Amino acid sequence: MPTPFQPTLLVGAIAIAMGISTSTFAQQPIQDAKPAQTTLDTLVVTASRTEQNIEHVPARIHIIDSHIIEQSPIASFPDLLKHDASINLVQDGGLGQLASIFLRGTESDHTLVLRDGIRLNNAASGMASLAFIDTTDIQQIEVLKGPASVLYGTDAIGGVVQLVSKTPEKNGAFLTGEIGEKSTYKSVIGADAFDNGFYAQIRGQRLESDATKVTNQKTQTSKTAAFDQKGYSAKLGVEKERFGLSVDYSENEGTNLYDAYAFDGSLLEQDFKNEIINVRGRFNLTEQLELHARLSQFKDEVEQKDSTDYVDSRTQEAELYAKWQFTPTQNVLAGVTYRNLEGDILSYGDPYKEKVDSTGYYLQHQYTNDQLNTQLGVRVEDNQKYGTHVVGQAAARYQVLPSTSVYANIGSAFKSPTLNELYNAWTGNPDLDPEESISYEIGLDQKLNYGFNTGVSLYYTEVDNLINAVNGSKLQNINQATYQGGELYLGWAKNDLFAKATYSYVKTENEDTHQELARRPRQALTLTTGLQNEVYGISASLIVKSHSKDWDPNYRNPGYATVDVNAFWNVNPYIKLFTNIQNIGDAHYKTSYQDNGYYYVNGGRLASAGVTFKY
């Protein structure tokens, strides 16, 4: 191993674990273990704003559940997303480095990232700071594929990635420690309280790592891009039949090093901090009518330590919506969202401080029974800068046979210009129009004999008014692009064994130049297989990507394949041991082209082991 393990604390913890009697194990079964594959009663909230059985959703949704999230506290948000074949997750180096989502081939700022409804996309760049988002208290991550601007407004052209946080359901406490290669350490502590619908939760975490080199530059320095973060979160609330109220606060801050773009191996240092405040309320006016409200603020700050540059981004939202269940099979969702985006930025000596207000009004009808599920919606967005914009969506899933269902949807979406695109002194253009899209999708899901299930989906998306620069000039609405492809999956589960393979194909094209878009591998494959029950489990995951173009037509990013291995053992109801190996073959591959013939590279293998104590 490049960096020796420092296992003193871990060995001590394991020794304590092994020394504790397991005589109570058979009498007190583990309650929090669950199968790795998506179960039939999996509930999702992103597609319709309310809980819905995933089998009824007329779209593709990928679920990353709590079992996977908790398996390795060291695993970052980008690491978790890499296991979805429809996402090309491009990270400019290893742990803590800039990461971008290309969902179904769409642009890196065409995927909206949410946490419990809060927009995490940076007001300045339009992208979420994926590497700086902590997942400590997350119950599940939902990846909704396809347009979702009707419910969520701007940025949801390719889809929505939503982190759904945990809500306490019982009293308890835990302590987790994980130690890995490259001097990587992660510790998490938390406690929950629950009594008659009232609950409280607190979490704290700390991560340190020497990390790895960011590029393949041949230099004299061996310095690595170290990463350090810490954070905490707290939640208070009450959940009753007639009403509910919750207050959430979370904060995550740290320091990371990144390549200075000087081609001599030098690194720059920056501090980051993000803060979330979320107040949510629900009141059931009648058995058929619910009223929901949300007030939230997300602050995303970065300050350069080696220069005067900084980015202070703030997003404030107020939302009110009602759900009326006017028949046993039909409901209407009507709401309004006010959003204020504000940025205070100094980039390469050019400052600006601006804000943009927008108000969105949306209406959605939903029909649900055992055979047919439909969604029909419209949104009117009134933006301070570009005026009024209208989008709509229609979707349906039909249960043809007890084991066969088909779905189809059509929807339009938009992405409003970011503050950087509007006001940056070098390339900004305050006259930009929003990017607009139209998407079509059909799909089929089939349950087979002997525990098998399969499905296929085909889609086509067209985006107009793409924002781009021509020959280094200011940004303009000039391009049109198309994205067409499909996904195919095959799953199997029997007793404690499971396996699932997913294949994704996407072809992108700039209609002006007839060239393929950068950083979009045409083909991707993921395969996960293993054994899991309430006591122990072991699994392996394969990720394969084909080659892709990059911004320089003379260079391309080679394809690659990696394998992750995970295992755990619930020694008794109070102690869990686990181990993880990311990229077990230590495959070193180029993630994206940098410049001057050099590439950003991945971080290689990261083997780790840990223990969780629960009470």
Automatic annotation (TrEMBL):
Principal subcellular localisation of the protein: membrane
Annotated TonB-dependent receptor-like beta-barrel domain residues: 194-584
CDD domains: ligand_gated_channel (cd01347)
Membrane-related topology note: Multi-pass membrane protein
Domain TonB-dependent receptor plug: 55-160
Signal peptide span: 1-26
Keywords: Cell outer membrane, Ion transport, Membrane, Receptor, Signal, TonB box, Transmembrane, Transmembrane beta strand, Transport
Family per record: Belongs to the TonB-dependent receptor family.
Designated name of the protein: TonB-dependent receptor
Species for this entry: Acinetobacter shaoyimingii
Lineage per the UniProt record: Bacteria, Pseudomonadati, Pseudomonadota, Gammaproteobacteria, Moraxellales
